[in-house]
C-alpha cells in the first residue's frame, strides 16, 4: 500500500490476530493513517474469511472491506513453530512495533502474559465479549442494552435489532484509541500496556455517555418508543408527493423558525403556541407537541415533490435529507463523486469504490485494496524476520505457513 | 478529577469548543484516559446545555453524561477579549497542549488559520456535517446511508431511524483517534495537524468498511429487510413462555451444533439438511434456510421460561441474551454490579451510576462527575494564565467570562 512517509502513524507496526468486525476495524483505522498492520490468520482463513455478502467469485465483500490496506500472513495456529513465528515477528517489529491487537480468546500463546515475556514493552489489546471472558457478539450485546425496545414504529410490540453492528463499530474505534493512548505512554515512559476491551462494556458505556442510563435511574421508567421522532426536540420523516421520504430536523430555535417560514406556517405555529401555552423556540416544547406540529407539516411535504422540497429548503438552516437505499447510493453516482471514496481494484471483486479514512489530515492515504489471504506471508517473513526464500518455501511445504 | 499520574494521556491538555454528541464524546474519551480536557462554552451554555432528558432540577442528563471529568470554562464568544482568552489558553497550554477539538462552524476566530498563528504546532480537529461545510446531524446523515430502509420488521414500509445516534458516536471516537494520531506525529516531528472530520463521511466510511457499499455496487440491488434475522448466518429473537424475549445467535458451526443439541433438534436438522440438500455447518446455508430453522426452534423457546432457557444454554457455546429495557438495567441492580460503572454524585442530579472508559488499562480512571457550567473558569484562568483573583473578578463583572 502507498503509505506516505509523513503519515501520522508512519513507522508503527501492529500485529492483528482478529476476526469479524471490531478488531479488524480497529486495525484498519490505524492502517488508513499510515501504520503497517499485519493481519495474521490461520492457514485457510479465520471464521470470517467467507462471511456474507459475497462477490460472484465467492470473495467476501465483508472481509475485503474490513481489511483494506493491511498485509496478510497465514500461519499454522496449532503448530508450536507457527505460534513461535508470531513471537518472532513481535520481537522483530522494532521500537515502534511490539503491538498486538486481537479478539482471539482462550489462546494462551496469544495472551499478554505469554507475549510480554518476549517484549516487556508489549502493547496488547484484547477485545472480548464480556469483561469476565464470556462470549458475546454485537447482536446479543445490543439486546441487553435497551435500544431494541425503543427503536422502531410506535405501537410495535417486541424488539427491533440494529442492522448496523453499532457496538462492533464503536468497539473497533475504542480499540484504536486505546492502542494510540498506550503508544503515547510507551514513547514517554518506555512502559507497555495490557488493555482489555469488552464489547458489552462498550455498549453500556455508550448508553451511559448518552444519558440513557442516568435517565432510567432518575425517572425509574422506560423512555417510550416514539418511532422516527427525534427525542427531546423536533424531527421526523415525511412522505413526498413523488413517493420519496425525507428526514427533517429542527434542533434549534432558528431551524424551527426557518422551517415554519419555508412551509408558510409561521402564523399557524404562532397561533398554536398561544392555544397550547407553549413556546416552540424551546426544544422541550417542540418535542412535547411533536404530534400536532408534524401533523401540520405533513400536507406541505405530501403536496410537493422531492425536487420542490429541495428548492425551498436549500439555503435555509433546516436540517434535512432524503432517505436513500444502498442501491440508490451505488446507482446515483454518489459514491464516485465523494472525495472520501476512490475506485480500487479488489482481487476477487474487481473495480469498486471504497472509502479511505474519514479523518482528513496531511499524510492520510486514500483507500487501498485488501490483500489476498496470506499474500504477504513470504515478504513479511523475509523482510521482517530475514528468512531466505528457501526457508520460507520449506516452512510452507511443512504446513507451518500458508503460501501466496 | 482524580487523574492518575501514570494515566496513558496524563499531561495532555485539550481545549474543546463543542456541543451535542460527537465532539463532547471525543473529548470525554480522552479525559477518561487522563487528558485534561477544558470545555469552553459561551456564557449561559451552548445549544446542548439544557438538552433532554432532564433531571427534576432541570439539569440535563445528556449534557452531564457527555462531559464527565472535564473542566468547564465560560467566555463571551462575541467579545474580542473573550475570544482572545481562548487564544491565551492555547498558548499557555504548554508542550502537550495546543490541541483544539471543535464542532463550531463558521467562527473565524476558532478556525485553524486563526489559531495556528498563535501556535504553529497547533493540532486542530474540526467536526462538521458534510465535508463541504453544509450542516448535517446524525438523524439526517443516517437517512442518507441506506440503513433505515433495511432496519425494522420485514414487510414494513418506510424507514426506521436509529434511536442510538450511532454516527455521532463513531464520529466522536474517530475524532479521538485523529487527535492521538496527530499528537504522535507532533511528538516525533514537531509538526501540528489540521484535521477535518465530517459526520456524513463517517457514516459513508463505516457503511463501506462493513461491505454495504461494495454489496450494492456488485449486486446492483438492495439487501432486503429481514427483521431481526442476522444477515449471512443464523440469529433471531424468540419469545419465551413467560413473555420475555431472547436474542439467539449461531455464528459458527459449533454454535449451531450446540444449539441443535440443546434444543433436542440435532436429528431433525440433520433430516432437514438432507431434504433441502443443505449443509447447516455453512453460515450461508443457515442463512438461506433461516425461516424453516427458526420456525423449528420457536416452539422450544415458547415452551420454556427465561430461567429454563438460561439453565439449558449456559455452558454451551450458543450466543444469546435476554432483551432488557433501560428500566430493567437500572432496576435490576445490573449497573451497580458492573465494574465499568461507579456511583458518582452529579451536581443537579444526585447519586447516579456512571460509566468510565470501557478501555481497561493501567491508569485509566473511573468516572468523574461533569462540572457545573463554568465552574472552572476562575481556576483555569488563574492556574493556566496566571491571572489574579481580582483580574478574574473584573473580567466576570464586565461580562467577558462567566462565573462560578
Q: What's the quick description here?
A:
The structure is a homodimer. Chain A is built from 17 helices and twelve strands. By secondary structure, chain A is an alpha/beta fold.
Identify the most extensive interface between protein chains: A-B, 151 and 151 residues
Q: What is Rg of chain A?
A: 26 Å
Q: What is the terminal separation of chain A in angstroms?
A: 17 Å
Give the topology string of chain A: H per helix, E per strand. EHEHEHEHEHHEHHEEHHHHHEHHEEEHH
Question: How confident is the prediction overall: mean pLDDT of chain A?
Answer: 96
Based on Cα principal axes, name the global outline of chain A.
elongated
Described by strand count, sense and barrel closure, the largest sheet of chain A is: 6 strands, parallel
How are the secondary structure elements laid out?
Two copies of one chain form a homodimer.
Chain A lengths: L12 E5 L4 H10 L4 E7 L18 H6 L4 E5 L4 H13 L6 E4 L9 H5 L6 E6 L9 H8 L20 H24 L3 E6 H11 L2 H8 L14 E6 L5 E6 L2 H10 L3 H11 L6 H6 L1 H13 L3 H8 L5 E4 L3 H6 L2 H4 L3 E6 L3 E6 L3 E2 L16 H9 L3 H9 L7
Parallel strand pairs in A: 1-2, 1-4, 2-3, 4-5, 5-6
Antiparallel strand pairs in A: 7-8, 8-9, 10-11
Helix pairs in contact in A: 1-6, 5-7, 6-7
Account of the protein in words:
- Two copies of one chain form a homodimer.
- Chain A is 40% helix and 16% strand.
- Chain A has 404 residues and is an alpha/beta fold.
- The longest helix of chain A is centred in the middle third of the chain and has 24 residues, at 166-189.
- The first copy, chain A, has a six-stranded parallel β-sheet with strand order 3-2-1-4-5-6, sandwiched between helices. In chain A, strands 7-8-9 form a three-stranded antiparallel β-sheet. A two-stranded antiparallel ribbon of chain A has the order 10-11.
- The first copy, chain A, is elongated, with a radius of gyration of 26 Å.
- The first copy, chain A, is built from 17 helices and twelve strands.
- Chain A has helices at 22-31, 61-66, 80-92, 112-116, 138-145, 166-189, 199-209, 212-219, 253-262, 266-276, 283-288, 290-302, 306-313, 326-331, 334-337, 377-385, 389-397; strands at residues 13-17, 36-42, 71-75, 99-102, 123-128, 193-198, 234-239, 245-250, 319-322, 341-346, 350-355, 359-360.
- At the A-B interface, α1, α2, α5, α6 and β6 of A face α1, α2, α5, α6 and β6 of B.
- β12 of chain A pairs antiparallel with β6 of chain B.
Amino acid at each position: 500500500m502507498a503509505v506516505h512517509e509523513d503519515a501520522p502513524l508512519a513507522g508503527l507496526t501492529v500485529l492483528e490476530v482478529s476476526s469479524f468486525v471490531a478488531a479488524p476495524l480497529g486495525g484498519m483505522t490505524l492502517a488508513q493513517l499510515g501504520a503497517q498492520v499485519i493481519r495474521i490468520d490461520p492457514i485457510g482463513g479465520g471464521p470470517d474469511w467467507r462471511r456474507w455478502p459475497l462477490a460472484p467469485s465467492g470473495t467476501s465483500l465483508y472481509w475485503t472491506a474490513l481489511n483494506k490496506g493491511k498485509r496478510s500472513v497465514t500461519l499454522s495456529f496449532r503448530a508450536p513453530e507457527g505460534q513461535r513465528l508470531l513471537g518472532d515477528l513481535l520481537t522483530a517489529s522494532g521500537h515502534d512495533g511490539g503491538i498486538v491487537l486481537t479478539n482471539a480468546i482462550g489462546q494462551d500463546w496469544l495472551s499478554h502474559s505469554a507475549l510480554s515475556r518476549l517484549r516487556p514493552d508489549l502493547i496488547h489489546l484484547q477485545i472480548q465479549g464480556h469483561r469476565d471472558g464470556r462470549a458475546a457478539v454485537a447482536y446479543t450485546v445490543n439486546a441487553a442494552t435497551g435500544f431494541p425496545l425503543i427503536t422502531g414504529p410506535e405501537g410495535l410490540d417486541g424488539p427491533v435489532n440494529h442492522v448496523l453492528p453499532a457496538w462492533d463499530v464503536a468497539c473497533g474505534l475504542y480499540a484504536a484509541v486505546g492502542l494510540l493512548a498506550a503508544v503515547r505512554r510507551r514513547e514517554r515512559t518506555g512502559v507497555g500496556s495490557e488493555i482489555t476491551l469488552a464489547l458489552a462494556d462498550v455498549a453500556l458505556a455508550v448508553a451511559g455517555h448518552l444519558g440513557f442510563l442516568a435517565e432510567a435511574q432518575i425517572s425509574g421508567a422506560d423512555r417510550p418508543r416514539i418511532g422516527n421522532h427525534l427525542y427531546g426536540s423536533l424531527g421526523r420523516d415525511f412522505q413526498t408527493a413523488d413517493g420519496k421520504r425525507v428526514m427533517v430536523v429542527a434542533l434549534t430555535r432558528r431551524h424551527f423558525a426557518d422551517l415554519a417560514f419555508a412551509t408558510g406556517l409561521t402564523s399557524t405555529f404562532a397561533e398554536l403556541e398561544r392555544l397550547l401555552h407553549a413556546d416552540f423556540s424551546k426544544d422541550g416544547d417542540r418535542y412535547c407537541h411533536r404530534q400536532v406540529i408534524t401533523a401540520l407539516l405533513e400536507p406541505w411535504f405530501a403536496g410537493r415533490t422531492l425536487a420542490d422540497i429541495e428548492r425551498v429548503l436549500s439555503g435555509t438552516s433546516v436540517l434535512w435529507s432524503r432517505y436513500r437505499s444502498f442501491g440508490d447510493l451505488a446507482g446515483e453516482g454518489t459514491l464516485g463523486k465523494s472525495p472520501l471514496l476512490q475506485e480500487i481494484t479488489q482481487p476477487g471483486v474487481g473495480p469498486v469504490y471504497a472509502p479511505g479514512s474519514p479523518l482528513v489530515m496531511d499524510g492520510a492515504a486514500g483507500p487501498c485494496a485488501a490483500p489476498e489471504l496470506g499474500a504477504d506471508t513470504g515478504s513479511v517473513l523475509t523482510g521482517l524476520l530475514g528468512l531466505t526464500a528457501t526457508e520460507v518455501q520449506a516452512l510452507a511445504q511443512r504446513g507451518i505457513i500458508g503460501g501466496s
